[in-house]
Write a structure and sequence with these properties.
Chain lengths: 457, 277
C-alpha cells in the first residue's frame, strides 16, 4: 500500500504517504529506501511497528527520523524488540476483531475493472478469509446501485467517488449518511476516440464532438470537462457530453453516435479489441493517481454491525493490497473475467490490469500503473471533486468544501478502523495534487474554482 | 397435389421461408478467418479471437443447444441457466399480473355497472393509462425500496389498464334485455352479476387479460434490463455488456417463444369462454 511508510527508516515521513504531492515530498527527500510491504501479514506488522514506534517518539516524526538516522533502523528495531513484546502486540492486533454479527452479505458492483478488489475478493477467497460469506451482485448502473444500496438490498456497494458527495449535498438523491471508508482504484480510465478521428489528436479539433461518460457525478465527467477546458473548449458549449451506460459506449461508437468517450475499462480496451476506436490518452496522464471508484456503505451498517463491517473492510483492504501487486494481476484477470463477474474476454481484462496493451494505433504500450489500487480516501480528493462540481454548476452557493469532504470521506474514521484492524494510514488527510501541470491546493478551493477561464462557478 | 389441405400448404410455405431466410442469413455472414502467426499487437487486439458481430444462425443454434441442454445450472448470483432466468421473469410477470387482475376485474365491474363510478374514475384512468410502465420504475424503487417488488409493481401497473377498461366495456355492453330478464326473475344484484353479466362479459374480459399478459411480458424484459439481478432481461443486458450477439439473439428468440406460450394460454381460455348468440 502506498500509504504505509517504513517506521524504522530515517528517510520516510510517516505523516505523508509515499505518493504525497506536498512540497517537502515533491523534492524527493523522503521517497527512497521504502519498499512497501507485499503481503497482508507484512502490512499488519508494518502497521503495528509504525504505531508503536510513533508512540515511543511521542508522535514527533522529526524526532523519530533523526533517531533512526543516528542509530540505523535495524539497531532501533532490535533495541525496541528487547524492551517491548512486538510479536505479542502483532498477534494481539491480528486477533482483535470479534466474530462478525452477520456473515451473509450482499455487495453490489457495476461490472468494470474499477471494482476489481470488490469482485476478486469473492473468487480468490478474501471474504472467506475473514469469516464472511459475501455475494457480489452485478448491478446494471450507478443509479440502480445507489437505489439498491439505499433500499438495504446491498450491505455495501461499489460506487463512484463523487457519488456519496453528491448524495450528501442532495444532488440527485435524498441525503442519507454514507461512509466511504475506502477508495477502490486510482487511474484506470481513458479517453477513447472513434477510428475516424485518428488524425484529430489535438483536442482543439474536437469542437462539435459528442462524448459519452458513464454518470453525471463521476470522475469521468469531471476529468473530461477539465481536459477539454484546458484546451480552450467549453464542455457545455463546444462539445456535447451524454450520459451513456458503458456497454452502450462501444456500440454507439461503432454506430457513429459518439465521437469518443471517457469511460471505465474494460470498455476502452474493448473498443480497441473490436477494432472500433483507439485510446487517445489514459486519465493518469491528466491526473496521476486520481481516485475513481469507491467502496461505500451506509453509516448504519458500520454502526449496527461493527465486527461485520470491520471484517468486510479488512477483506477489501487486503484484496486491494493484493491487487496493487503487479505480480498478481494475471491471476486476478482470469478470476474476474467469467460471466459471473465482468463477463468479458480474459485478454481484454489482462491488458487493462497488466498495462501491456494495444492502443488501437498500432503500438503496444507498457504502462504498469495504467490502473492501480490504493484505498486511502484523501479529503483533498473530495475537495477537488467539489471544486469541479462548483465549477460546472452542479452545486451552487457557498460550500464548506472541507466540511463536506470530511463528512463523507470518513478518512479519520477510516484511519481509526484501519488502525484498530492493525493497518496504518497516512496521518495527513490533505495533500496538494497536480492536474495537467496545475497544482491544486486544498486549502484554497474557492480560489482554485475561480482560477479557471472556462466554467460556470 | 390436390390432397394437401390449406393448412398443410401453409406449413410447407412457412418451412420453406424459414430455411430460405436462415440460408441467406448464414451466407451473408462472412466467415471469420483463422489467424496464422500473430504479432503481439495483433494478439492484443484480438487477432485470433472472434469480433463482436451478428453471428450466423448455425452459431445461434450451437449456443441454444448449449444453453438448453443445461438450463438450470446455478453458478453464483450473476450466472444462472436460461431456465432459471426465465423462471424468475415468469414469476414476476404472474405475481404482478395476478395482483392487477384482483384489482382490475372487480373495479372494472363496478365501473361498467355504474355510470357515476365510470364518470368519476374515467379522468384518472385516462391520465394514468398512457404512462409508460418503466416511467414508474424510479419512483417504485424509491418508495418500495425493494427491486423485486418494484418490478412486480411495474407489471401490476401496466397490466391493470387493459383489464380494467375491457372489463368495464364488457360489463357495460351486456345486452339490456338480458339484465331485464334477470330483473323479471327477481334475481338479486349479486346473482345478476355472477349469473348473467359475468358470462356475457367474459369474452371481452379475457380479451383484456390477453392484451395485458402480452404487455406484461414486453415490460418485464425492459424492467429487468434496467434493474439487473435476475431474469431474462438481465440475461440480455449481461450478454450485451459483453457484446455477445449470439447470446443476445438466442435470448430474443427465447423471449419470443415464452411470450407466444403465454399468449396461447389465454387464447385457449378465450375459446373456453366464447359463446355464440
Amino acid at each position: 500500500m502506498k500509504s504505509l511508510g517504513n517506521p524504522f527508516s530515517s528517510k520516510t515521513d510517516l505523516r505523508h504517504g509515499a505518493d504525497c504531492g506536498c512540497k517537502s515530498c515533491a523534492s524527493g527527500e523522503f521517497r527512497a529506501d521504502d519498499a512497501s510491504p507485499q503481503s497482508s501479514e507484512a502490512m499488519l506488522e508494518r502497521a503495528v511497528e509504525s504505531a508503536i514506534v510513533r508512540s515511543v517518539f511521542g508522535h514527533s516524526d522529526i524526532g523519530r527520523r533523526s533517531f533512526m538516522g543516528m542509530v540505523g533502523g535495524a539497531t532501533a528495531a532490535a533495541a525496541l524488540a528487547s524492551v517491548f513484546p512486538m510479536d505479542k502486540a502483532k498477534a494481539a492486533i491480528l486477533d482483535n476483531l470479534g466474530t462478525p454479527e452477520k456473515t451473509d452479505l450482499n455487495i453490489g458492483f457495476v461490472p468494470i475493472t474499477c471494482a476489481t478488489p470488490i469482485i476478486m475478493a469473492q473468487p480468490l477467497g478474501f471474504y472467506e478469509r475473514y469469516g464472511l460469506n459475501a455475494q457480489v451482485i452485478k448491478t446494471a448502473g450507478w443509479a440502480v446501485a445507489r437505489d439498491k444500496s439505499l433500499a438495504g438490498e446491498y450491505d455495501a456497494s461499489h460506487m463512484l467517488t463523487p457519488m456519496p458527495l453528491a448524495m450528501t449535498l442532495g444532488a440527485g438523491s435524498t441525503a442519507t449518511p454514507y461512509i466511504m471508508p475506502a477508495v477502490e482504484n486510482i487511474n484506470g480510465q481513458a479517453i477513447v476516440l472513434s477510428n475516424e478521428h485518428k488524425d484529430k489528436r489535438d483536442p482543439k479539433q474536437w469542437k462539435g464532438f459528442t462524448f459519452g461518460v458513464p454518470f453525471e457525478y463521476s470522475m469521468h465527467n469531471f476529468l473530461l470537462r477539465y481536459y477539454v477546458a484546458e484546451f480552450g473548449l467549453d464542455p457545455d458549449v463546444d462539445i456535447q457530453i451524454r450520459v451513456v451506460p458503458p456497454p452502450e459506449m462501444v456500440a454507439n461508437l461503432r454506430a457513429g453516435n459518439l465521437d469518443g468517450y471517457l469511460s471505465p475499462d474494460p470498455f476502452n480496451q474493448r473498443a480497441v479489441w473490436e477494432g472500433i476506436g483507439f485510446i487517445h490518452i489514459l486519465t493518469k496522464e491528466i491526473w496521476e493517481g486520481h481516485p475513481c471508484c469507491a467502496f461505500a456503505a451506509p453509516l448504519s451498517f458500520a454502526e449496527q454491525l461493527p465486527n461485520t463491517y470491520g471484517a468486510l473492510l479488512k477483506s477489501i483492504i487486503d484484496a486491494t493490497q493484493y491487487a496493487s501487486n503487479p505480480d498478481n494481476r494475471k491471476e486476478i484477470s482470469e478470476a474476474i473475467a467469467p460471466t459471473n463477474y465482468l463477463n468479458q474476454p480474459v485478454p481484454v481484462i489482462e491488458q487493462v490490469l497488466t498495462g501491456t496493451y494495444a492502443d488501437g494505433l498500432g503500438e503496444v504500450k507498457q504502462v504498469p500503473d495504467r490502473i492501480d489500487f490504493d484505498p486511502f480516501p484523501w479529503h483533498s480528493m473530495g475537495v477537488w471533486i467539489l471544486t469541479q462540481m462548483k465549477r460546472w454548476g452542479y452545486i451552487e452557493g457557498d460550500i464548506d468544501y472541507k466540511a463536506v469532504a470530511e463528512q463523507v470521506y470518513l478518512a479519520a474514521d477510516a484511519r481509526k478502523i484501519m488502525t484498530d484492524l492493525g493497518y496504518d494510514a497516512p496521518t495527513e488527510t490533505y495533500k496538494s495534487h497536480v492536474i495537467m501541470g496545475k497544482t491544486f491546493d486544498p486549502e484554497t478551493p474557492e480560489d482554485y474554482v475561480s482560477s479557471f477561464a472556462i466554467g460556470k462557478g | 397435389m390436390a390432397t394437401l389441405s390449406l393448412n398443410q400448404r401453409a406449413a410447407i410455405l412457412s418451412l420453406v421461408l424459414l430455411f430460405a431466410g436462415l440460408l441467406v442469413w448464414e451466407a451473408a455472414i462472412p466467415a471469420q478467418k483463422a489467424a496464422g502467426e500473430l504479432t503481439e499487437y495483433e494478439r492484443l487486439t484480438g487477432g485470433g479471437a472472434p469480433k463482436a458481430g451478428v453471428p450466423p444462425p448455425s452459431q445461434v443454434f450451437q449456443k441454444a443447444w448449449n444453453e438448453l441442454s443445461n438450463p438450470f445450472y446455478d453458478a453464483g448470483p450473476n450466472d444462472k441457466g436460461i431456465g432459471i432466468q426465465i423462471g424468475y421473469s415468469i414469476y414476476r410477470v404472474l405475481s404482478g399480473y395476478a395482483l392487477a387482475a384482483l384489482v382490475a376485474i372487480p373495479l372494472g365491474f363496478l365501473i361498467g355497472m355504474s355510470t357515476v363510478a365510470y364518470k368519476a374514475l374515467n379522468p384518472f384512468i385516462q391520465v394514468l393509462r398512457p404512462i409508460s410502465p418503466l416511467a414508474w420504475m424510479p419512483l417504485a424503487l424509491f418508495i418500495i425500496q425493494d427491486s423485486e417488488r418494484s418490478a412486480i409493481f411495474v407489471i401490476f401497473i401496466c397490466s391493470i389498464w387493459p383489464m380494467l377498461i375491457n372489463t368495464a366495456f364488457g360489463v357495460a355492453g351486456v345486452r339490456k334485455d338480458w339484465v331485464n330478464v334477470a330483473k323479471t326473475h327477481e334475481l338479486g344484484a349479486l346473482r345478476t352479476a355472477f349469473m348473467v353479466i359475468l358470462p356475457a362479459a367474459a369474452p371481452t374480459i379475457v380479451t383484456g387479460m390477453r392484451i395485458s399478459i402480452g404487455i406484461a411480458w414486453l415490460v418485464i424484459v425492459a424492467a429487468e434490463m434496467l434493474v439487473g439481478g435476475t431474469g431474462i432481461g438481465y440475461y440480455v443486458w449481461n450478454e450485451w455488456n459483453n457484446l455477445d450477439l449470439t447470446s443476445v439473439i438466442f435470448s430474443i428468440l427465447m423471449i419470443g417463444v415464452v411470450g407466444m406460450a403465454l399468449d396461447a394460454m389465454f387464447g385457449i381460455l378465450q375459446r373456453l369462454v366464447a359463446y355464440s348468440e
